[in-house]
Amino acid sequence: MEFDMSLSPRVMCVAPSKTGAIAEQATALVQAGVPVISLSTGEPDFNTPSLIAQAGIRAIEENNTRYTPIAGTVELRKAICHKLKEENGISYNLDEILVSFGAKQSIFQAVFAVCSPGDEVIIPAPYWVSYPEIAKLAGATPLILQTNMVQNFLLDPKQLETMLSEKSRLLILCSPSNPTGSVYPRELLLEIAEIVARHPRLLVLSDEIYEHIIYAPAKHTSFAALPDMKKRTLTVNGFSKAFAMTGWRLGYLAGPKHFVAACGKIQSQSTSSASSISQAAAVAALGMGKAGGKEVANMVSAFKDRRDFLVNKLKDLQGVKTSDPQGAFYLFIDFSSYYGSEGRYGTIDGSESLCRYLLKKAQVALVPGDAFGDDKCIRISYAASLSTLQEAMQRIEKELVQLKPPV
After folding, report:
1. pTM across the whole model
2. 3-class SS at 317?
3. 150 φ, ψ to 5°?
4. Long-range contacts formed by 215-218: CB under 8 A, 24+ apart
5. What is the rounded distance in angstroms from the CA atom of residue 230 to the CA atom of residue 78?
6. Please, what is the average pLDDT of the chain?
7. Aminotransferase class I/classII large domain: which residues (predicted)?
8. Most buried of the four, 74, 154, 191, 233, by CB within 10 Å?
9. CB-side exposure of 396: number of CA atoms within 13 Å?
10. For strand 367-368 and strand 377-381, is the pairing parallel, antiparallel, or unpaired?
11. What is residue 345's predicted lDDT score, i.e. its pLDDT?
12. What is the pLDDT of residues 177-230, one digit of tens each?
């Protein structure tokens, strides 16, 4: 009899992460000796601050290498509660905090804990690549709410209102945004909160992983800090971006005890507790001062310089449109005027083919916008040194002018 190699329908409906695939392709080319510049991943090029690294080393030397409580050490959860109260104006108890292996696991568990088959998850586009796929895995239906560059990729509350129904279970917000760098102002969040309040089943998942990477005059507002929204909000944050701790794999969820306990139940049957060493390091990170103190402020200043350089260079490119990101370390650039052009490898018919062209010709790895729900654009990560960005832009400019304009 023929061996059954079928897979779960839920797995079959999920697309692999395009950002991960491109990063792996770029790494393979570099290992093969091709001088590829990768601007595809959201990974700061800075080292983990020494204070944090030393705390991790100390945890190993003191044999702090055992399982911790599934929800995280008491010390870390206390530090997270203190951070959320002092920086975000939200008071939480220890049983309203769950520490996980990164913000992605926190998001995954939150969606699985609150969504059932038939529920709808509202996701503004452009979106982080994993949001729709996680919703599909949970058996929910992702509904994409399109935004545009003219509105700085911020959702229109009136459009949101038209999409909501009794099936609406979760609205996902990401501010500062991956991939656009947009920051939701408090006034707009208040409008959204008024709409949420009118829909009893609707919860908000607020992804705030880029909270500290923000450029004045923009200010971060936590959705749970808005009037009556704490009980409706699942806040996700972590340590990977602001503290340059991507490999430490640590994030957390804050929310009503009922929902956090459900997420903890999922975690108890999957990964159990996060790394004890990473948790000790995270306590040190939260002890560096408000918003990470001087070391994080220096990183953010460098990110701002890089953003300013890229924005100015891209504005000089014919037919390219860009917004002015207020946070994170990404640019989401409209290159659609080049679609229809003829290159050495055929016609440029969308963001993916343009990225393939630039990878082969310019040897620069970027992420096509179709992965984020907007095929007109391409995402550039400026989590790389200024000299690297300068070299990358020279290569990109050189190859773009080689494209024959569409007829």
Report:
1. 0.94
2. coil
3. -60, -35
4. 215/300, 215/303, 215/304, 215/307, 215/325, 215/326, 215/327, 218/176, 218/183, 218/185, 218/326, 218/327
5. 18
6. 94
7. 35-396
8. 233
9. 26
10. antiparallel
11. 65
12. 999 999 999 999 999 999 999 999 999 999 999 999 999 999 999 999 999 999
Q: Would you say 280 and 56 are in contact if contact means Cβ atoms under 8 Å apart? A: yes
Give the H or E element holding residue 364: strand 364-365
Q: At what angle do helices 257-268 and 103-114 cross, to 10 degrees?
A: 110
Q: Which tokens go with 370?
A: 């179709």
Ramachandran sector of residue 315 (left: φ over 0; alpha: ψ -120 to 50; beta: rest)? alpha
pLDDT tens for each residue of 232-257 = 999 999 999 999 999 999 999 999 99
Alpha-carbon distance 178 to 330, whole Å?
A: 7
Rounded Cα–Cα distance for residues 101 and 153 (Å): 29
Q: How far apart are the C-alpha atoms of 366 and 399, rounded to whole Å?
A: 14
Q: Give the per-residue pLDDT at 165.
A: 96
Domain architecture of the chain: domains with CATH: 9-47+294-402 (3.90.1150.10), 62-290 (3.40.640.10)
